Every structure is written in structure tokens, then in C-alpha cells.
């Protein structure tokens, strides 16, 4: 029923825009006095590198959605999280981002690589933190849906995001683009200069600076949140070392800092038992003497909270060699990526003084890929290569409870002792370290059996080794060891209040994995290609960085088998994916329609689940089945009118998974857990889509007005891993518009950009507010909120 309703709404939107397109086309044709039998020119071809070659999107047997860098600028996209594509979800969480493709993704545990791999100019970015980095001076972004393990790697089990930076040019060129958003109070300045430095050397220097005051008002400390300051610079040199060898050196540095966060508390319920019966968590905090701002518990772009900071720096260096040989191209990509960040999180997410969390992370990655791609058009085409990666991760965090925390008098009163005083000015230093190496060999063979029949065979064999340690202690707030009675009592209080216990763990794991793939392409007509594919996906196991407990219960003080047992090592996840697709062009190459249906069988999904207090536990979720359909299309109604859209239906169902219950849910599985069989996953709307209309009108003989109207639709989804109905996001439709004035043949543009014009309130990652239900008995929820309606002015000058 929900699917039928969503499909009906989507069909209505498509019909309305198609009618508008036809009417607008007729009007524009009349005003321009174009002959009624004029035929628009063909669609421009979209080129992608989904097969590690530059090929037409219409010829690759993969479901792909490609966005040009120009479209990203016009839409005001700053980072991956801003992209609005069906089948793709990038969500900010409390300690990192999560990337989901086709309903498959990884949680926010620092021990995870993402299930959806991100690749920038051939360099793998698998860490959640790396998806926060700004996008700038981009040629295009390709969303490759479904497992891409053969050519891209083991951790692209859900799909891949392939980012291509704009390259140095052989003629002088450049641009400057500035955007000011009045609602978000955000200034964004981007630019690049490119051209030849000598007969054999070309260079490009690009950068981006962004400053934003935030869109959520902090009622406790004042100001808007999250405020941002970003600065990114990239330099590239492209050298014709010989007539057959091109070397490209790239260096990129980014600093992106943030204060505050756009998280709000909502849907609170009063305690039903205990000393706070009848009071919500906000009322409890207020009664305990907290600032009155804590009473704001609705989604209204206002919140209470203490100071929060996030300081990030990343660097990436790459050397790419392309050597044209007689039978193909030999490519070598050497990369070094590193980042460091430190954060102060007011992780009770209220304006009360409960506790803070300090955390920081350092990561280094050295990678080397070498591959040989034969020339195309032979009976047998092939790509073979090898990949090596060496990584080092260091993650540290600590709960910080100062002497003024309201937990101090609360625990004193509850225990009729000075236990609360003894937990004041304490912390929980935790250090997680991991070193890993990976080696793989891969190949893809295409047999062009006939002019219309093409068979593709692929295989990747990968070996990986990881070693990790996790140590958690209870210490003074400055990190020094506790002494005397405090050393005895503080750990007991942390166990009962925070469900946290000191421990020291270490582990090693290694192993081989092979990932075969097969696809068949058949040209049903000159402009119609059908394909069938099968891919085995794989994502390596690893170690949990954030569980607050040891993996076995302590000798005393454990009230149940799951209340004080954490997690450390988790296993590989595996998938088998089947896909059928159709790619077509028609109406004299003025229309394009691509369809794909897929079915994926997942085993041992890696899931990070909030423990309901303050920690996360990683487990493997048994099995899941995902099926869906995707549609992408473009229609050039006239040379001045384009209709484009994308639609995705996703059906995710756990077949085997026992996990944490949401607050108030009756356990129906062993260990006071809940059975998720038959249920969906986090961030999976049944239907999502977007439709856009681009219309160009000439104003006299020198100027033109370009108008883009866009609607983005999402069905309902759960933004919380426990699928708590209290945080469910209802279906919504956002409307965006852009009107730009520019010369017919010129180098400047002025535009007005409106986003979320109907002012929809949309929630992202959600979780139980720490301690609210488990300690105070009053359920409370927090969620990141997307920006409200905004209006921005853009200006662009190019040369």
C-alpha cells in the first residue's frame, strides 16, 4: 500500500513536470519563432570510468548515476553529504559519517571501513571521516550502484563513489565562483586556474574557502550551529615525460573545522516508574538546576547544548603514470593519504552539565596500484593489475565528568554515600590502535563474441592482515591514575551508570578471499543494450574500536549475559548480487532511459548498534536480502529544454538478525534482545527519486535566462539502528529552484538558488539520548536535522 501510494505520487510529479515541459517548449518555440518542425540536437554523451576506462555510460554493464562538476556547483553541493541521489545516503553521526548505497552501509564505528567505497582520482578513501572532506573543482562524480569489488576493491561491497578532479588544461583557463546563502549565513568561494607551463608541462591550482554561521540556534550558549570554516587547496602538474608517458602529480590539503552540531532533542516521554515518575528528561534536568534551555525538546531549529568543536586536517598526495604501449596503457597510481582530527563532544546533547567526550583520530594510508588495459575493439579486451595498501590507525576517546556534573549529587542521593563525589573529575581514556596491510590481484576479460554479444569475466583475489589493540581505563580528568578509595569506587559507578568497564584486548586476523564476477551484454538494437551480471562481494572483518566492555563477563557485578559484555573482533561480510539492466537511446538520440533490477543476498552484515547508554557494539547481523529497481532518464524536449530524473525502489529485509531492542519494546529473542527477521535496515526508504526541468530562454540577442526546477522525494525511513518508531522519518518532497542570467556566449553568470522551498523538516541519524532512559527512566531522542528553506546568491566568472 505504501509503495503504491509513493509510486502514485512519483508518477504524478513526473506527469506534471512532463506537461510543464511540453507547455514551456511550446511557449519558448513560439517566442523564438522557431519552425514547428524543428528537431532538437542529440543529447550530449556522458562518459564514465566505471570499468577503469573512459567509456560511454550507455555501454557499461553497471547501474551508474553521473553528475558533472558544473551541476554540483549549481546545486550548491559542498560535500558528499549534500548530494541528493536515489539509492545513496550519506549521513552525519555523532562521531563520523555513514555511506549507504542500495540500503547497505556501515555504522559509525572507527573500526569500520565503509561498505560503499569512495575513490578520488584512483585513491581509495574508506574511512568514515574522509567522507566529511569538502568537494571542489570536480569534473564529475559517479555513483556506481552494486558491488564493484573486481576493479575497485574488497570494501566496495555496496557500491562505489568515483570522484574525478578537474585536470590541467592545454590552454589557459580558470574560474571563480562565489555563493552566499542568506538563511545559513554561508559564504562559499571556489576557484581554479589552469594552463600550460611549458610545451610539455601543464598545471592547475584550485581551492575552496567556506564559512558558515549555522542554521540551528543554541539557546544555552548562543549563536548558530554548526558553524563551519573550511579551506582546501589542490595543486596538479601534468608532464609529458616522453611522447608515450604522461606523469601527473597531485597534492591536496584541507582543513575543515566545525563548532556545535545540528542535533535536536524531540519525542520525549515521561518516566513511568522511579523517583522521576511523570517527568520528561528535559523536566528532570531542569529540576536538577540545569539551564532552562533544556526544556526545548521539539524540532524547531533550536536546541540546548554546551560548547562543541571538531578540528580536521587531511592531506593527500598522488603520482599517476600513464604509459601508452603498443597494445594498451600501463597505469601506475601511487598514493599517500593522511588525516587527523580532534573533537570535543557534549555527548549528552543537552545544555545540562552531565558529561563531555573528547576524541581524536590519526590515520595514514600508503597505496600502490598498477594495471594494464589493452586497447579496445579486439576480440579479447582485458584489464589486469595488482594493488597494495598499508594503513595505520590510532583512535582515542574519553568520557569527561567534571566536579560540577549533575551526576555527582544525583549519585550521592541515590546511593546515600559519596560515590558521586568520587566520580567527579574523572575520565575514561580509551586507546584503539590498528595496523593493516592488504594485497590483491585483479583482472577483467571481455570477449567480444560478435558485434552485438559481449561477455565479461572478472576476478579479484585479496589477502589482508590486521592487528589491533583496545585499552580502556578509569583515570582522573587530566588522565593521571586514580588513587585511594576513588580508584575502587569510580570503576563501580562507571559500570552501573555508563555500562563501562576497564579492559585490555588485542587480536590478529588475516586471510584470503576471491571475488568472481560475470556479465553478458547484448545489443538489442543500435541504441539499446541489455545486460545481466553476477558479482560476489566481500568486506573484510576487523576490530571494534568503541565497545565499552570486555568480551567476557567479569567475575562479579554482572547482572545478565548481555549487560556487561562488549565486542571486539567481527567477521567478514559476503554478498552475491544479481542484476539485469537495459540502457537505451531513442527519439533520434534526444531521449535516454536506463533501467536496472537487482537482487542481493548478504551474509554476516557488520552492524554497529548503540548499547542504549553510551557505547556501541559491533556484531555480524546474520543474513539479509535486498532487491530493487532503478530508473534514470533524460529527455531533450527542445534545444532549450531538458527533462531529467532518477527513481529507485529498494526492498531490504533481514532474514537473520538478533539485536538490541528499542526503548519500550518487548524482547522476543534470547538475552533480552529482539528479532529483526523480516524488518528493514536504517536509512532505507522504499521509494526515492528526483525530477528536474532545465529551461533556457533568450532575452534579446545577447542574454539568456536559465531556469532549473527540481523536486526530490523520499519515502519514510528509520534513522535509528533499532528501528524505533519514535524517530521514524515520514515521507517528504523537497523543491529546489535556480534562476541564472548569463550572456549567450560569455564568461559570467549571476544566479539565485532556492533550496527546500517548502521548508520540510527532515531528520537524519537518530539515537537515544545517553542515560535518559537507562538511568533516569525517561526516554528521549536526538536527531541531526537537515537545513531549512534557504536562498542563496551565486556569481561566476570564467576565462
Description:
- By secondary structure, this protein is mostly beta strands.
- It has a single domain (2-798), classed as Beta Barrel (Maltoporin, Chain A).
- Helices cover 9% and strands 52% of the residues.
- It has six helices and 46 strands.
- The strands form nine sheets. It has a 22-stranded antiparallel barrel. Strands 3-9-10-7-8 form a five-stranded mixed beta sheet. The chain has a three-stranded antiparallel beta sheet with strand order 4-5-6, with no helix packed on it.
- Strand 12 (186-196) and strand 13 (201-212) form a beta hairpin.
- The two termini are 54 Å apart.
- The model is unreliable at 1-37 (pLDDT under 50).
Topology summary:
Layout: H1 2-32, E1 47-48, E2 55-56, E3 63-68, H2 69-75, E4 88-92, E5 97-101, E6 104-105, E7 116-120, E8 123-125, E9 138-145, E10 159-165, E11 173-181, E12 186-196, E13 201-212, E14 216-218, E15 224-225, E16 227-240, E17 245-259, E18 263-266, H3 281-287, E19 302-303, E20 309-325, E21 328-345, E22 356-374, E23 380-401, H4 407-415, H5 419-423, E24 426-427, E25 430-447, E26 453-472, E27 475-476, H6 484-498, E28 503-525, E29 528-539, E30 542-543, E31 569-570, E32 573-586, E33 591-603, E34 606-610, E35 616-620, E36 623-638, E37 641-656, E38 658-659, E39 674-675, E40 687-699, E41 703-714, E42 732-743, E43 748-755, E44 763-768, E45 781-785, E46 790-798
Parallel strand pairs: 7-10, 14-19
Antiparallel strand pairs: 1-2, 3-9, 4-5, 5-6, 7-8, 9-10, 11-12, 11-46, 12-13, 13-16, 14-15, 16-17, 17-20, 18-45, 20-21, 21-22, 22-23, 23-24, 23-25, 24-27, 25-26, 26-28, 28-29, 29-32, 30-31, 32-33, 33-36, 34-35, 36-37, 37-40, 38-39, 40-41, 41-42, 42-43, 43-46, 44-45
Amino acid at each position: 500500500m505504501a509503495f503504491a501510494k509513493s509510486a502514485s505520487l512519483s508518477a504524478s510529479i513526473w506527469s506534471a513536470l512532463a506537461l510543464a515541459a511540453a507547455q514551456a517548449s511550446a511557449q519558448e518555440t513560439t517566442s523564438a519563432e522557431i519552425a514547428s518542425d524543428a528537431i532538437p540536437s542529440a543529447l550530449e554523451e556522458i562518459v564514465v570510468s566505471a570499468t577503469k576506462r573512459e567509456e560511454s555510460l550507455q555501454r557499461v554493464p553497471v547501474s551508474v548515476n553521473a553528475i558533472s562538476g558544473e551541476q554540483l556547483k549549481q546545486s550548491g553541493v559542498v560535500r558528499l553529504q549534500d548530494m541528493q541521489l536515489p539509492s545513496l545516503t550519506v549521513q552525519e553521526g555523532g562521531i563520523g559519517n555513514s555511506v549507504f548505497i542500495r540500503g547497505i552501509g556501515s555504522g559509525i564505528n572507527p573500526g569500520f571501513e565503509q561498505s560503499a567505497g569512495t575513490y578520488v582520482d584512483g585513491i581509495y578513501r574508506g574511512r568514515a571521516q574522509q567522507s566529511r572532506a569538502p568537494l571542489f573543482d570536480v569534473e564529475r562524480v559517479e555513483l556506481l550502484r552494486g558491488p564493484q569489488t573486481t576493479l575497485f576493491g574488497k570494501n566496495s561491497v555496496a557500491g562505489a563513489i568515483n570522484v574525478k578532479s578537474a585536470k590541467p588544461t592545454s590552454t589557459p583557463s580558470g574560474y571563480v565562483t562565489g555563493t552566499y546563502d542568506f538563511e545559513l549565513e554561508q559564504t562559499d568561494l571556489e576557484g581554479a586556474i589552469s594552463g600550460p607551463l611549458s610545451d610539455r608541462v601543464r598545471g592547475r591550482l584550485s581551492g575552496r574557502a567556506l564559512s558558515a554561521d549555522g542554521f540551528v540556534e543554541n539557546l544555552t550558549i548562543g549563536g548558530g550551529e554548526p558553524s563551519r570554516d573550511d579551506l582546501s587547496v589542490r595543486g596538479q602538474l601534468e608532464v609529458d615525460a616522453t611522447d608515450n608517458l604522461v606523469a601527473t602529480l597531485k597534492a591536496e590539503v584541507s582543513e575543515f573545522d566545525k563548532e556545535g552540531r545540528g542535533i535536536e532533542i524531540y519525542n520525549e516521554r515521561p518516566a513511568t516508574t522511579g523517583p522521576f515518575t511523570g517527568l520528561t528528561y528535559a523536566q528532570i534536568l531542569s529540576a536538577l538546576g540545569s539551564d532552562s534551555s533544556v526544556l526545548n525538546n521539539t524540532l524547531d531549529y533550536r536546541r540546548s547544548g554546551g560548547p562543541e568543536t571538531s578540528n580536521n586536517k587531511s592531506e593527500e598526495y598522488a603520482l599517476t603514470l600513464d604509459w601508452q604501449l603498443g597494445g594498451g596503457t600501463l597505469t601506475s597510481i601511487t598514493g599517500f593519504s593522511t588525516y587527523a582530527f580532534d573533537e570535543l563532544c557534549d555527548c549528552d546533547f543537552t545544555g545540562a552539565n552531565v558529561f563531555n567526550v573528547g576524541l581524536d583520530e590519526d590515520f595514514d594510508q600508503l597505496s600502490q596500484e598498477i594495471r594494464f588495459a589493452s586497447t579496445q575493439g579486439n576480440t579479447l579486451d582485458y584489464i589486469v593489475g595488482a594493488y597494495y595498501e598499508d594503513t595505520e590507525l590510532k583512535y582515542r576517546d574519553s568520557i569527561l565528568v567534571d566536579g560540577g556534573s549533575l551526576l555527582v549529587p544525583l549519585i550521592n542521593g541515590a546511593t546515600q554515600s559519596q560515590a558521586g563525589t568520587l566520580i567527579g573529575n574523572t575520565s575514561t581514556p580509551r586507546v584503539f590502535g590498528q595496523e593493516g596491510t592488504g594485497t590483491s590481484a585483479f583482472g577483467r576479460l571481455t570477449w567480444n563474441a560478435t558485434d552485438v554479444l559481449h561477455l565479461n569475466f572478472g576476478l579479484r583475489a585479496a589477502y589482508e592482515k590486521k592487528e589491533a589493540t583496545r585499552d580502556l581505563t578509569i583515570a582522573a580528568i587530566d588522565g593521571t591514575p586514580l588513587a585511594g578509595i576513588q580508584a575502587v569506587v569510580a570503576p563501580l559507578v562507571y559500570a552501573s551508570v555508563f555500562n563501562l568497564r576497564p579492559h585490555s584486548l588485542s587480536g590478529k586476523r588475516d586471510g584470503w578471499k576471491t571475488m568472481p564476477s560475470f556479465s553478458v551484454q547484448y545489443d538489442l538494437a543500435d541504441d539499446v543494450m541489455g545486460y545481466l551480471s553476477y558479482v560476489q562481494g566481500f568486506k573484510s572483518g576487523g576490530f571494534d574500536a568503541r565497545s565499552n566492555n570486555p568480551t567476557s563477563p567479569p567475575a562479579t557485578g554482572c547482572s545478565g549475559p548481555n549487560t556487561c559484555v562488549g565486542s571486539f573482533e567481527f567477521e567478514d561480510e559476503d554478498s552475491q548480487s544479481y542484476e539485469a539492466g537495459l540502457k537505451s537511446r531513442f527519439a533520434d538520440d534526444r531521449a535516454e532511459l536506463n533501467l536496472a533490477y537487482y537482487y542481493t543476498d548478504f551474509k554476516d552484515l557488520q552492524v554497529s548498534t548503540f548499547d542504549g547508554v553510551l557505547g556501541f557494539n559491533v556484531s555480524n547481523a546474520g543474513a539479509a536480502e535486498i532487491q530493487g529497481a532503478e530508473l534514470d532518464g533524460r529527455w531533450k524536449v527542445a534545444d532549450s529544454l531538458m527533462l531529467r530524473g532518477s527513481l529507485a525502489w529498494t526492498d531490504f529485509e533481514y532474514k537473520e538478525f538478533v539485536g538490541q531492542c528499542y526503548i519500550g519494546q518487548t524482547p522476543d529473542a534470547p538475552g533480552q534482545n529482539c528479532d529483526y527477521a523480516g524488518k528493514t535496515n536504517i536509512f532505507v526508504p522504499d521509494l526515492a527519486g528526483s525530477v528536474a526541468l532545465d529551461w533556457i530562454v533568450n532575452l534579446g540577442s545577447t542574454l539568456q535566462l536559465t531556469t532549473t526546477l527540481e523536486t526530490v522525494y523520499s519515502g519514510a525511513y528509520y534513522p535509528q539502528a533499532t528501528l524505533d518508531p519514535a524517530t521514524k522519518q515520514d515521507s517528504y518532497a523537497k523543491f529546489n529552484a535556480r534562476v541564472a542570467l548569463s550572456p549567450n556566449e560569455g564568461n559570467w553568470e549571476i544566479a539565485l538558488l532556492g533550496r527546500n522551498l517548502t521548508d520540510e523538516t527532515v531528520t537524519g541519524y537518530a539515537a537515544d539520548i545517553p542515560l535518559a532512559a537507562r538511568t533516569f527512566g525517561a526516554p528521549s531522542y536526538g536527531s541531526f536535522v537537515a537545513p531549512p528553506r534557504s536562498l542563496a546568491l551565486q556569481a561566476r566568472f570564467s576565462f
